[in-house]
Specification:
By secondary structure, this protein is of the alpha+beta class. Among the domains are: 61 residues, 3-Layer(aba) Sandwich (MutS, DNA mismatch repair protein, domain I); 114 residues, Dna Ligase, domain 1 (2-Layer Sandwich), CATH 3.30.1490; 46 residues, no CATH class. The chain contains 20 helices and 14 strands. Helix 5 crosses helix 6, helix 11 packs across helix 12 and helix 13 crosses helix 14. The two termini are 36 Å apart. It binds 2'-deoxycytidine-5'-triphosphate and magnesium ion (2 copies).
Length: 527
Amino acid sequence: MEEEDLGDDFSYNSVAIQSSEKHERVIIHIDIDCFYAQVEMIQNPSLCGKPLGIKQKNIVVTCNYEARALGVEKLMSIKTALEKCPSLVLANGEDLKKYRDMSEKIYQILQSFSPFVEKLGLDENFIDISHKINKSPEIKPEVSGHIFEEKNSGETCACGCTDRLKEGSIIAQEMRNQLKSELGITSCAGIACNKLLAKLIGATHKPNQQTTLFSASSLNLMKSLKHPRNIPGIGSAMNRKLEVLGIDTIEKLQAADLFKLVEALGAKTANQIQQLSFGIDNSRVKITDRPKSIGAEDGFPTIKSETEVRKKLKCLLDRVWELVEKDGRRPSQVKLTVRKLHATNHSVREARQTAIDLTTGFPSNAPLGPLSENQEKKVITTLMNLFEKVVNCDESWQVTLLGISFSGFPSGIESPAKNSINKYFTCSSRPNETLPPPTKRGRFDESVLQELPDDIRQEVLEDMKCQMPSSSTSQQSADFDCPKGVDPQVFRELPVEIQKELLAGEKNKKPIATKKPNNLLQYFRKV
Ligand code: DCP
Ligand code: MG
Ligand code: MG
């Protein structure tokens, strides 16, 4: 497509799409600097100041900024990295436990600022702090950190988002300060009116910095990305489809004929991707669900005997159960994954799952503890039975990987949620036990609902009616029902968003067959 051809379509789409843009929210995206490397340096301070690479197999998955200054890059082969930087210190990063632990601590700190925290991978989180913004501050806030296109930043948006984003930058700074003072970890933050822009802008000044994007500059930020591939969520498969359509710049994507895009990608994706190219992303910050399964795998050269399998499974079970214990929910299913090596030297993965009863020995209200000797035996026997379903032990065989994963956790509010906002609001089972007070920062302004434009408020209310269970008790709010297990009084005081989240959790207890979302949708909705 020639540049000159873009004119008419571009302005048509641009006006149509931009007119639908709203800047009501303040979203912060936090990404930890050289995550695995920082965890290693925190645990072993003698590594600080030295160029450090974290290896998995023969790849440097990440490296600290000292190593980056000497030419080492993320995902470089160890050979190349050592050629670039012979003094590179290498630490093994194959056991993810310590990174997961740190990730969990980061999540908890961020949750003390707002319950709306969505995890993206181990070192990134989106936080929606819209409810915390002071609607009529006595003193106009000043930005903390960088501003994208500072020279143009005098232009304020009529909707008032400029001041809201400035205040957001102060909260982002507080979050980063707390991560540093409590965990010793540095991070980058992006502050913008949606998730896409917050993520993109946060990456413009690294490491240990933060950047705010005022809404008037969002189109310029998008144009600065140049290639559609640089939009988070557009992977290589989508990129190939776009290239077939002749779309190889952000501007061409903005100007593309929507009908042609729909034909090639389907209506939902076509619309979404064109909106993203204009920096528009209406996806919500979705409170991170707890994992549906917890497990680990271990690869090795080869194992040829059942005794060895049993030994490996025992080690693996120790590791996995530690994670399950930490999570606190009791699993009812166990899955074994096996990678078999065939004579032709190709390998095949197979998995088998079965129910397992681990209630004996764990009183139902007590926190999940370590497995007793009997329970461990029971799990290993179950796993060995599954193994025999995958591998014919009467013939010779070789396996190169074993994995254990637990699932079938009780869903919803009754399970002792560690990360979920439910933990703040669940009724205490013991009469004298008081609820932990919701954190100061966790309190919401209920008037949020009143301040929404009429049509949106109506939509939210309709949405909530659909989610209401059919029965209600006299103690509960006139407008909304209260989910089981939540103190109605506490529930009534919650802002509509949290009420909605809790009600949605309640609704989700019923198994619903959902269609697997495409990559793009998944990127913006899930961890
Ligand atoms: N990681 C990985 N394999 C990948 C990408 C990442 O194992 N293909 C791990 C190592 C990183 C962590 O995930 O430390 C976070 O990924 P980031 O892309 O955020 O990279 P870093 O945090 O290491 O560096 P940066 O400072 O650029 O964010
Ligand atoms: Mg990072
Ligand atoms: Mg990251």
